[in-house]
Amino acid sequence: MKKRANPDSEQNIRRIDTKPRAKKQTHGFQVHFLRGGETVTRLFSDSGHGGKEGARRAARKFKRSAMSDLPARVFRGPVRATKTRRKASPGKKPKAKGKKARKR
Question: Are 8 and 15 contacting, i.e. CB atoms less than 8 angstroms apart?
């Protein structure tokens, strides 16, 4: 099942709201993006910025300033999934391919 997108999220800014029954509550906006080999991630909590809208404004401001300091994004084409071979577990023999002769 595909995870539903939060309507408060934007490009490179996602809304974080923990479930009410969680021990620790987290509410805020997380800025996250990759540029070159560098990862930028920062959380702006509602409580530290005067509510939801204050945290959103702070996240947008940080995103603008951080993106202007980093190099432009380079598009290298779609990412393809690579096939990985399964290794046989140490206790089992790998299955033979093809037909086996029947024992009589």
Answer: yes
* pTM passes above 0.85: no
pLDDT tens-digit readout, 32-88: 988 777 788 999 999 999 999 999 999 999 998 888 777 766 666 676 666 666 666
Q: How far is CA 85 from CA 81, 88, 94, 99, in A?
A: 13, 9, 12, 21
Question: And the tokens for 11?
Answer: 């490009």
Number of domains observed in the structure of the chain: 1
- Alpha-carbon distance of 18 to 61, in angstroms, equals 24
In a domain, 55, yes or no: yes
Distances (CA, A) of 89 to 41, 65, 82, 83, 100: 39, 51, 21, 19, 22
First to last CA, the chain: 50
Domain extent at residue 54: 13-69
